[in-house]
Amino acid sequence: MTFDDTVRRIAIRQRGRAVPIRSGGRASPSAVELRPATSDELVRAFRLMQSNMRESMTEANMEWDQDWTERNYRSKSNYSIFLQSDWKGFLSIEYIRSVLYIHTLQLTAQSQGRIFGASVFDWLLGQASANGATSIECKAFRSSPVLRLYQKLGFRIVGEDKALVSLALALGGGR
Q1: Going along 86-155, which residue ranges are E strands?
Q2: If I label 123, which of 50, 82, 100, 135 is the partner at 20 to 30 A Cα–Cα?
């Protein structure tokens, strides 16, 4: 099964039908675990974030601001993504009224384009449902490959500026 097949299965599930995710030789989604990030993992996450975003930030004529990053992200709900005991990345979210806002999803280079992003998205759908969110929202750099993934997952562009695209996925059944 390809990654695109997995994305389609999740999109079907998001529309209300439970569909199992099968790994097709990849890491089993059930083995992917999100845990609250420790202080040491946040340091690692910020380094990964800087590395992953470097090219997009350069294209947008933006500079990395470590102090701002630490002030901004430490107050959010931050999770480390693991496959068994191997750290694969970082997720930072926040609930703003009835919206689950994804501040960042960062995966290691070896984990990108695999089952991890889809597994995290499945987890996010569960969290949004459990907390009565009516939508999931995020921003992505125009040049980021994740923009295409978000659109495949059903997110719609709801705003744009010079460097960033705002995206939203409407959910049914919010409280």
Answers
A1: 86-96, 99-107, 135-141
A2: 50
